[in-house]
Amino acid sequence: MAALHLRSGDIIHGNYRSELEFCDKVIPAPLAKAIVSKLASKGLATLVIGQDRATLDYLKSETGAFLADDFGASEFEDETLKAFLEMALMARCRQIHAGSSVFATISSVIGGIRVIKPKAVFGNRGTATVILDELKVRQSDYHPLEAAFGYQSAFVLTEHSTSPAQARGILEKAAALDPQNPAYALKMAAGYFRERNYQGGEAVLKAFMLKEVDARAENSMRILQVLTHPSARGHIMAGDFELYFAAAKAGYPYAAACSAQILHAALGRTEAALAMAALSLKADPANRLFRQIELALRASATASDSSSLRQLAGG
After folding, report:
1. What pTM did the predictor assign?
2. Over the stretch 188-215, which tens digit does the pLDDT of each residue have?
3. Calpha distance 150→144 (Å, rounded)
4. Residue 87: exposure state from Cβ atoms within 10 A (0-12, 13-18, ≥19)
């Protein structure tokens, strides 16, 4: 038997799905089906471990895979005890397929077996193809966020090996299923900017940002936070920063607002950020979002100056 640790749950159904870096942690449900079939062709049954009950039940019904409940996990009311049983079961398998998961790593150490990464079975391009082919035929079988995360995984795997138009097509399908996810708008805009279609990218940013403001979202600037969210490997969208700068310099105010956030939050260049925010306001002085961004930047700059003065006084 082989084990698959999906590691979905809070990543796919929570805010982590906007950070793109978590594709390394999850086996998307559309990919899990293909891996189970591949393992079956080699004579291996599969144990599927995960957090989302509906997805587990679906995979069991579609593939015949075993669940931890088939080995008594449902008898435990304590989630910690249930987790230890799941790790022990995985440790007794011949293979463990999982992303970067401490849960799977512990099982690997206990059992003395290596963890096989999700994309290792089919390779980058093959994994993306498997996911997209499954969703093309069976997308409605999956929870919208599960399907959207499948598209996200396919995009991340092929972003640098496919055309901007093809990448954008994948992102559009993800965004249709998960319209509140700012990562898709940011990446679609970057794709347009890469083609020097600044008007197209600006339209994507404007539509998403105004929608957040109009909906009176609790955090109407979350898209900016996602743009500069730090990860263990730096900023996950750092490769797009120059594209936003180019669009801002070409006179597009929403790209300039994003650039101001990059300069301030990611690069620590507050004065340059204020200058960039001024470009947005010059283009649209009445824009409430642009005013919020400039006020936030000025407040941050003032706080930083005050902190420096206190340090000098203390010294």
Report:
1. 0.90
2. 999 999 999 999 999 999 999 998 877 6
3. 10
4. buried
